[in-house]
Amino acid sequence: MPAPMDVKLMNVTASALFLVFAGLVLAALLGWAMRHPVFAIRGITVQGEVAHTNAVTLRANVMPQLSGSLFTLDLAQARSAFEALPWVRRAVVRREFPNRLRVQLQEQHTAAFWGAQDESLLVNNFGEVFEANVGEVEQENLPRLVGPDGQAAQTLRMYRELAPRFAALDATLDQLQLSASGGWRATLDTGAVIELGSGTAAELSARVQRFALTLTQVASRYGRHVDALESADLRYAEGYALRLQGVSTLAAATSKTSNPQTHR
Length: 264
Hints:
The chain is an alpha/beta fold. The chain has helices spanning 5-35, 55-62, 75-83, 152-162, 201-220, and strands spanning 43-48, 88-96, 100-107, 110-114, 121-124, 129-131, 144-146, 173-178, 184-188, 193-197, 229-233, 239-244, 247-252, 261-262.
């Protein structure tokens, strides 16, 4: 015989009450677990790259910023706390039962200095600007890049394109500067300043290559060596102007068929 309606309602009500009671018990247990001291964050395991900052320093700087237990900790906030530290580019934070965090770090790898000499800004190999103690930079002879805000990646790409072109001059591209109007200026390790003008990487690379391949011949006409170069202007369509020690010239790019003109 089918159960009477009132019995069915009683069974449904009892089941509902049981589920509510079980939910309350579970919530109470979870609340107790979240507040229990055994699950409070006690330590951090640091992995990955820590060449510039040791694990003890990392823990000392980040631990005071962490709040909550293993279950309530905001991992995004914890990651931000690690990535706010000097030399840390990326941090991956994971919970480790019952009361620890495991952090995988990726450090900044410096490609160049950024901005004025008195600034503590650097550019990593992704073209991202970051701030750190420049005295901790381990690489020697890093170039200096200068440009408008937001143009570090473009400036680094241009540097990587142009630097090998100066090899024919036995010179090193020491500084590359991008002006607000889009003009480029190169400074060599000899102190020579070269105006490159504006244009694409391919256009500037062609100008520098043309200049590097003809400078020795042009300088020899005035009894000078390449290391006598003081400045040059490559913004001419068919040639370039340069200043050697004691000489200023306007030299055509096809120097075999041209007669450089001296001017002051």
